[in-house]
Amino acid sequence: MDYRPGLEGVIAAETAISFLDVDHEEIVVRGYNLLDLAREKTYVDVAALLIDGALPDEARRSELERTLVAESRVPEAIWTILRALPPSMHAMDRLRTAVSALAGFDPEVDDHSPEANRRKGIRALAKIATVVANLHHIAEGRPPAEPNPGRGFVENMLAMIVGRNVTPAEVRAFDISLIAYSEHEMPNSTFTARVIASTMSDLYGALTGAVASLKGPLHGGANEAVMHMMLEAGTPEGMEALILNKLAAKERIMGFGHRVYMKKMDPRAALLKETLRTLVDAGADGRWLAMGEVGEAVMQREKGLYPNLDYYAAPVYYVLGIPIELYTPIFFAARTAGLVAHVVEQHAANRLFRPRVRYTGPRGLKPAR
To answer: Which residue stretches, if any, does this entry annotate as coiled coil (predicted)?
Structure first.
């Protein structure tokens, strides 16, 4: 059998959800270019596209917005569980625990029909956003922020995170980032969710496994590492010096390179770079954009590597006032819509994942008598 380490290049599933067309630099989501969606639509529109299978009309968009806000309230027992966890515990570990516990409060948890999975998916999307928005508050011993029924879904999430009223420009920047993270074909976390779903396990089990996968620094977490690197550098000049020193020490520079985008810039990185520039034009500190551009030029010159989404998402989140430990949980909250779509698709035309191995161990050994 042909062996591909890491399953690189192996077709693991047929899907009508998304495809990375590297040759044309297009991320196809149910037939649309993800960048077009980010520039013309909202995250709620894209969530509907992923979960329902089509872009919503005005009536469906309004209905989904109302449902998401109404379903955003989290059972008090979830806060009790999170308060019992050590504050030093990684935010993704606390999120994984909360996502698993949410299953106990969903009356349709064991109904795997497409209709039930979509209803559960919308409930999970709403509640996970509120959990993520409050991970930092709970860890600091503060009461959880409650969603405001007078705000939209995305505005609610950002306002709960930063603890203040947010401007339309800030909401739009955050909305674009959520769209950018919403779906990306078959990364490790999506594959994990589909493998779990293929056993006919429930949606929450698949989402819990995806959280665990996304925690790994080779998948999620790069956005946090990028921001720590920028803070350490401090200035554009310091950014170049820091990267050169890290390269000389053969350290990995997070936020660059991608398993699929080998020799091209991640289209989502360009989108978030534009988004950061709009925030700077609206009055945000411009040094983070300047530092990003310096780092981008150095890595292209020295290693021939291009930024991925996490590289420019990090400073976008920083200027919005989002705590760094929440960057990867936000990635998961945004990706929940895509994961739900994959679980619905897997359950609807299921085949259990059961690959084989290339055995490299000994043969013919006999036990001693």
So the answer is: none
